[in-house]
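Collaborator request log, item 7. Partner lab (contact: R.S.) asked for a structural prediction of ABC transporter permease to inform their binding assays.
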Amino acid sequence: MTVDTLAAPESAPAARVRAVRQRYARRGDRGTVRGHAYTLYLVALFAAFYLVPVFHARSTSPASVSVGSLTEAAPWVCALAVAVCWTAQIAGRFWGPVVVQPFLLHVFMSTDISPTRYLGTIARRRLTYVGATGLLSACVAAYLATDLFDHLDSAVQVLTSGVGLSALAAFAWLWGQVRPLRDNLLLASALGGTAVVVGGVSRVAPDSGTGLWLLAGVLAATAAVLGRAALRAIRTVDLARLARESARASQAQTYAWTGTLHHALDLYRPEPSGLTSALIRPDGRLRGYLPQGAVRALRTPGRAGAGAALLLIGSSVLTHGAGGRGDGPASWLWALGALCVYLGSGWVGETWRGLRDELTLAPLYGERWGGTLARTLAWPVVAVTIGAFLGGGFSVVVRWDHHSGHLRDTAILVTGSVVMALGARFLREMKLDLPLELLLPVITPFGDLSGLRFVAWQFDGFVVVLVGVALMAALPSAVGATALAVCMAAGCVWTGLRRTGWAHRGLFSRLSRVQ
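Returned to partner:
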């Protein structure tokens, strides 16, 4: 197809869109047949060496979780549906299904073609992929972990509800991107109210299967209505905002493929706005460390609110899990609560944002050694301490009979876990570019394990928290477990300072002043 055909105004919009895509598909950096074949080869190896043995082991052994009766399943599925749809809406606000390559979007925006023509097909294809992948993953997880598929009638009911849920979540993902914030709040409220009504009706249903069938019908009807409205809303999408989202997504993909996932996530941190004058006192001086941190947190209210919620929920779950130390489910709650505190400690304050840059850049104003850490870490430490105290106190008050026998040990373990989470967060925030030595092969009898080092470096904070909780749960003494957590936190802080090279510079400058 020639350029004149592309520019001909009388040509059909569908043909013009198809011609642009074909021309873009023949670009110089497109994937080759050999590259696609190698990807299929890796997938086949993974399936042969990992998936097939796991499926074989599941088929010859009993399930680890017994589902039992589905009488009370409908309210839990309603809660799961609301959580999944809300998460899909939030994901759509940052990275939705109509995010395309910036150059391709620029070409389409330069024409008179309606956005429905070139974005509708992309949206439908991606929604189909996401819905099918989510449903397949849920089925595989249910087969491997539960005995749901041992009962045909229960499996059919849950599978029908899963189809409706996957479709609803996919369309909620699109709705979160193409509609403004007000419409997303209305949809979230409507989904919550519908879930409450359906859950209440299913609890009073006399038949155990009626609730799930009713839920499956509601999910299918809601998905049909929402899907039609979301696809029709594509023609009203803000193209300027979509161009910014596409450019940011392209840059994030580049960071992710080059091994700096933390830089990709930093691109989606909200930009502070407002309250600039609140950082300065009436006499022109900057406010203290704690007021500065609080004001900077309030400049990103959404992120700060999510961080505060994670701190309260995480510390409550952490206290409950640490109080039942030695029990298997309690250990999982302990790890989950520690991870929530780890995430909340980074989201509750924006002073982490410039800490790494200040430590890596040359000192311009000659601040005394340690002043940067005191100024930037004062607010996160205080906020996490207050959140842990409030959440842990709520857990103790609600379940006093569970904690009254060993309240002192629980408090010691929670303190150590919070300190370790703060150290892990500091380690994560001080991360720079990917060290090249991590790409070197590690040859063992089990194969090349360099990928494990790469994954551990990418998610070092999560690894520290999970390993630390496992070691703390294995120790019999609460004081010893807390001492181990404090040592791990100190090691994380020292490793983070070594990553920036600031520890050596600070120590050298300190020794030079002594001399």
